[in-house]
Amino acid sequence: MKFYNTEFAVDKKYAAEIAKKVNAFYSGTKTKKSVFVTFITTYGLVQNQYARQYVQNELTMDQLFVKL
Known about the structure:
With 68 residues, this protein is of the alpha+beta class. The chain has three helices and two strands, in the order H-E-H-E-H. The chain has helices at 12-29, 49-54, 61-64, and strands spanning 38-41, 57-60. Strand 1 (38-41), helix 2 (49-54) and strand 2 (57-60) form a beta-alpha-beta unit.
């Protein structure tokens, strides 16, 4: 878990880490089910080619703390 005080940008290096972790999960669990990478962020993600390719879901603080 990490904290950033701005939007988080998934770069080429971090995208490779995500792919490595997903592959390790598949290998370790032997699951045939889909894995959906989800980011929970304070300020959101920068929508770039890596975020679009590797991140399926994103939750921001606005979505988590809704006034009732």
